[in-house]
Design goal:
It is an enzyme of class 6 (ligase). It comes from Emticicia aquatica. It is built from 16 helices and 23 strands. By secondary structure, it is an alpha+beta fold. The chain folds into three domains: 5-65 and 184-360, 2-Layer Sandwich (BirA Bifunctional Protein, domain 2); 88-164, Herpes Virus-1 (2-Layer Sandwich), CATH 3.30.40; 392-480, 3-Layer(aba) Sandwich (Rossmann fold). The strands form seven sheets. The protein has a seven-stranded mixed β-sheet. A five-stranded mixed β-sheet has the order 20-19-21-22-23, with helices on both faces. The chain has a three-stranded antiparallel β-sheet with strand order 5-4-6. Strand 7 (168-171) and strand 8 (179-182) form a beta hairpin. The radius of gyration is 26 Å and the shape is globular. The two termini are 32 Å apart. Bound molecules: adenosine-5'-triphosphate (ATP). Adenosine-5'-triphosphate (ATP) is lined by residues 186, 218, 220, 229-230, 233, 235, 300-303, 348-350, 352-353.
Length: 486
Amino acid sequence: PATSLQDIISHAKEYGFVFPSSEIYDGLQAVYDYGQNGVELKNNLKAAWWKAMTQLHDNIVGIDAAIFMHPLTWKASGHVDGFNDPMIDNKDSKKRYRADQLLEGKAEEYAKAGEEEKAQNLLNEMGRLLGAEDLEGVRNLIIAENIVCPISKTLNWTEVRQFNLMFSTQVGSVAEDSSLIYLRPETAQGIFVNFLNVQKTGRMKVPFGIAQIGKAFRNEIVARQFTFRMREFEQMEMQFFVRPDTSEEWYKSWKDARLKFHKAVGLPAAKLKYHDHEKLAHYAKAAVDIEFEFPFGFREIEGIHARSDFDLKAHQDLSKKKQQYFDADLDENGKPFGNYIPWVVETSVGADRLFLAVFCNAFTKETIVSSEEGKEDKERVYLKLHPALAPIKAAVLPLVKKDGLAEKAQAIANSLKSSFRTTYDDGGAIGKRYTRQDLIGTPYCIAVDYQTMEDDTVTIRHRDSMEQERVKISELKEKIGYEVSM
Ligand code: ATP
């Protein structure tokens, strides 16, 4: 049976991965909390990304910049003036929608009905109108396409308005002294304003990169599809500073490298694809999304953008601080490349979207056909997570509690603890205990039985195949010590 988003949401909640925020007060739209298993999976994904960026590249270092930044940052970046989504309200249902999403939905309908050309024309027209900021034109297009409100089914639309996605608040305790400040809508700007700090103190030579993982906030108009679109989320961004004439080459190389990363954390090639942007954001020279096939279709999980010198130049203009780099490397005429503002190739992935992709992909429902006549087939649900990403790597389970088996199992669990997250469970029938671990994706269950007491061997039960193998306790660590190989 095909997995629905509802299956994913229910499983995530029931097994301690993701809870709605402040649920006892009926939740807060588009805000979620990670539970005891979710936080482990998310941390493991973040660690894999951090390693892929910083540990495996001599020329990439990390930073951790503050969420609050000087308000002029967002002027320079273009977010104050341009970080808008066009919104439209339906007068009957009083529901708010993103005008561009309504039109994209219609285009998707055309495409599904095989009317590819009609779909493309609609997207092109939408791109043209939005590019020209012709909001009335966008509204007319919605009406001409007969797009009705999904709730009221009417065409009774308001005008289209631009809605800035940044959250703002006040700094300073006294009203008169306070000033407007934003919650960062992306982590990238914390990297740009630290470009020279890192370059100088780290004696970095172009090409080099700065990586960061951190929270970002966007007042998304339409928040749907679980953790795919949240108002508070986490980004993993890396800005790679290059010589301008090499930007295209680096863009291609990061495009490749990032796809490989997603495969390395276990996403299958068939569920990943590139989507090149025709309509470019204000800062971009070239842009591509890596899309994953969620239960609701192919959607962006990561963006790779060639940003030229847009950001550093804007910060230089507004701060009046030079953002130049002196390149001592020699050009083809034997002269140093000299001073320039580096160009930037950015890779930007949402930790929560990657989490959701990995979680959706891991969720597996299988029917186990009974071999015995008259016995019913069983359904088995488990999370097929990469062993290095699973919240718990190994569960140690004594067959029974008596005759010293429990103590032996505890001792094994303790000996593994400092290497991997290990759990000990002696509650209930062993089959039930295996199932509990399957549901949270534990790749290895280590069973301690009477033979263990005689020869110091245990069985490892493998999650996906359910096969068991007998191994020496002394070899356990080596047997299960998988890492994400990149
Ligand atoms: P979308 O078009 O889906 O709104 P975007 O193109 O605005 O995304 P970017 O600004 O390129 O996204 O942000 C980079 C990454 O940050 C995205 O690929 C996504 O993984 C993540 N991201 C952006 N907005 C959200 C959000 N509201 N909730 C969760 N993750 C997000």
